[in-house]
Predict the 3D structure of the following.
Amino acid sequence: MRLSIGTAWDETKSALARNRRLVVPVALGLILVPAVVSAMVEPRTAPGEQPEAGWWMAITLVMVILMLVGQMAIVLLSSGWQGSVGEAIRRSLRRLPTLIFAALIVMVPLILFLTLLVALIGMSAADASLSAASLSPTGWLVLLIGFLAIFAVSVRLIPLVVLVASEDLGPVATLKRAVALTSGHFWKLLAFVLLAVLAFVVAAAAVGVVIGSLISLALGQPEPWSVSLLLLALAAGLVQAAFVTLYTAMLARITSQLSAGSPGAPEVGRAK
């Protein structure tokens, strides 16, 4: 099957325009709100420092899970879902364990692989921080190869969220199907991911600089649980919600293209 990113983009714009009354509330409730809550509860630290572990991590984990539910619901609602918004969310909740188990099947070996690389370049696996001063050129090369390998695996699993939301396969079968669908399309999918990440980084940075500067001038520097932090989190959350919505809808259309003619593949977005 020939993959056309341009066609997928055109279909995405049409699908979101047609289903915006269904998609927008989900994006606001299950992407924007969790993003704002996560930003508000995370401790403020100096640039380059990591916040200390605490209760906020549990809240952030719950917010991430809600975002995954929202992302799967957006897949359905932007792809011809025949049921209600509530039914799409309930289906997403039912399919959530499958998505989590599939992610763990991939993430655990990747984390072990990265830990082994860290050990091989003479760093302590228990040290969560990577010091640039402690790495030799060979060490940087090994680490770069490791991250590239992880990124390559991520590209091959691009359809995962869409497949979990729209099909009824188990975690292992879904992973196999994602790899099979992306076979022969790696470079196009890699280009799509890189462009999407670049667009998000630029948009987020622009909003952060402009809105952040205006908020700081009007209300002072963002402090924990302050109005200025809330407004900054809302601005960043809106960018994130818009990006996740567009990106997820694009994934649905890309997966639909890749699935065309595949035996036994249900249409993405069909109500179940």
